Fold this protein.
Amino acid sequence: MLIAALGAASLFGAGCETYRIERHHRPGYYDSVSETPLPDRVVLEDGTIIVYEQGRRTKSAMTRVAETPGEGFKVREELEDGTVILRAVLPEQALSNVADCLYTEQYDLLYDQALSPRTREALDERGGGKAEFLRFFQSNRRDILVTLNRMIIGLAGQGTTLERMGDNLFRCRLHPSIAKEVKFSQAIIEWDGTNFRFVTIKP
C-alpha cells in the first residue's frame, strides 16, 4: 500500500544539457498526513529530477521504459573518495537506511546522516550525546533490526500504518498482532523538506 516503486526513468536533452528524470509512485494519502505540502518534484545535487506521481501503479512501475546511461537516483551512494551519501524521499527508505547501517554496524554514518538533527540536539542537551546514541543502538541492535524489517515489509501491505504527529513528524506503527512479538513497535521519522530522517524508536 505504501511502498513506492521506481517508475519510468529517462533522459531528456535540451541544448547541451542532459537531465535525468525519475518518476516515483506516492500514495495519495501521503499529502493528507503531511503537515506541509509535499513537493511534486525534488532536484538532487547531481541534477537528477525526482517527480512524484499519485494514483495506482502500473504494471511497468518497477521497470525502466527506456535504457539510459547513468545510475540515477540512489538511496545510498558511495563516491569515489569513499564518502557515503544517504537519501530517503519516502518513509520506507528512511527505515531502510537505519537498518542497513545497523546491519553493517556503520554507527557513524547512521548518526551523521540517517538520524534527525533534532535527535542529535536532544541527546546533546541532556548530556548523553553520541555516547548515549551508541549505547542504545548497540545494545538494542538486534531488536531494532527485527522491528525495522517488519515495518518495511508492512509498509507494502497492511502490517504498518503511517500516522501524522504534527511538526513534520510521522509515526510508523506495527499492527498490534505483530507488535506483541517485538520489543519496539513504533518508529518516529521526520520530513525535513528534502529527506525523511529517523527520530526515535519506541515500544
